[in-house]
Amino acid sequence: MEAHKILNKRGFSVRSFGTGTHVKLPGPAPDKPNVCVFKTTYDQMYNDLLRKDKELYTQNDILHMLDRNKRIKPRPERFQDCRDLFDLILTCEERVYDQVVEDLNSREQETCQPVPVINVDIQDNHEEATLGAFLICELCQCIQHTEDMENEVDELLQEFEEKSGRAFLHTVGFY
Fold first, then answer.
1. pLDDT of 125
2. Are 93 and 22 in contact (CB under 8 A)?
């Protein structure tokens, strides 16, 4: 959602999604996450955690994250439930990249329109999310200025790998 916020501020048309069966937020222990359905609003999640343990969820920044999220959109959305077409799909975790690619490959091809899918691995903490969001924004700005994204994206990603020290996964899915 940090990348969503920054891209939105820079004028990009952005949507953000989860890919799991439920929304999971850190809980009081690693094996005890807070689990919600996708219809749950960020406001509801925020108030639920506030009631459960305000100190814990303030200390681990989850309340701050939910507060940011609810200012961006009302609730999380699930990628597999969306049939909209996108010019580019970015993921921030290899597991999510695999789920997106699997979903695109399992869909009935309606338009055969290609869509690049790029993964930028970002650790799930506030500092890395911010740094990763700026990297994603820079990548999107460069992609926006390519004349032929399909043929230039491999070279562009190689430059970003060298510059950032991060590995990028990339494939093309079809609608």
1. 82
2. no
